[in-house]
Amino acid sequence: MRIGTDVIAIERIDELVASETGFEEQVFTARERSYCRRRRRPADHLAARFAAKEAVLKALGTGMAAGMEWTDIEVVNDRAGRPTVRLYGEVAAEAERLGMQQLDISMTHSAGLAIAQALLVWNQ
């Protein structure tokens, strides 16, 4: 098993979305952006998803390696509302190389911070 954890100030993501042209599209999939924009406090949800993406990369042990895109990691909710992760592109290829069997995430936001943890189960 591998664990990845990340924390980010919600204000930082809010500032990047407001000031960096294309940031939101570069980092979040259309489905993620749509979900977050429907929430009362979109920045909280965007920040939690950003932290989740970082946590997944840390659990993989790669960071943002060559060829990987932020949108290769997508956080979606299942029918019960529980967040799950879908992997695409080079991130999915790395998970396959590791022999990933399961990837689970947990996210929260409070007091101006978003925190996420990823747990990866894999074969050696």
Compile the SSE list and pairings.
Layout (H helix, E strand, L loop, with lengths): L1 E8 H10 L3 H5 L2 H8 L4 H19 L12 E5 L5 E5 L1 H10 L1 E11 L2 E10 L2
Antiparallel strand pairs: 1-5, 2-3, 4-5
Explain what you see.
- The chain has 124 residues and is of the alpha+beta class.
- It has a single domain, classed as 4'-phosphopantetheinyl transferase domain (Ribosomal Protein L22, Chain A).
- Helices cover 42% and strands 31% of the residues.
- The strands form two sheets. It has a three-stranded antiparallel sheet.
- A hairpin with a 5-residue loop joins strand 2 and strand 3.
- Helix 1 crosses helix 4 and helix 3 runs antiparallel to helix 4.
- The radius of gyration is 14 Å and the shape is globular.
- The chain starts with a strand and ends with a strand.
Structure characteristics:
124 residues; alpha+beta; Ribosomal Protein L22, Chain A; three-stranded antiparallel sheet; two-stranded antiparallel sheet; 31% strand; Holo-[acyl-carrier-protein] synthase; holo-[acyl-carrier-protein] synthase activity; ACPS; EC 2.7.8.7; transferase
Structure described in brief:
Helix content is 42%, strand content 31%.
Number of strands: 5
Give the spatial strand order of the biggest sheet.
1-5-4
> How do the SSEs run, as a string of H and E?
EHHHHEEHEE
What name does the CATH topology carry? Ribosomal Protein L22, Chain A
Shape by Cα distribution: globular
CATH superfamily: 4'-phosphopantetheinyl transferase domain
Major sheet attributes: 3 strands, antiparallel
Question: In DSSP terms, counting alpha (H) and pi (I) runs of 4 or more, how many helices?
Answer: 5
Uncertain regions spanning at least 5 consecutive residues:
none
Give the radius of gyration: 14 Å
Strand content: 25-35%
Mean pLDDT: 95
Q: Helical residue percent?
A: 40-55%
Identify the CATH architecture.
Answer: Alpha-Beta Complex
Total individual domains: 1
Distance between the termini: 10 Å
Protein name: Holo-[acyl-carrier-protein] synthase
Main location: cytoplasm
Organism: Streptomyces katrae
Pfam families: ACPS
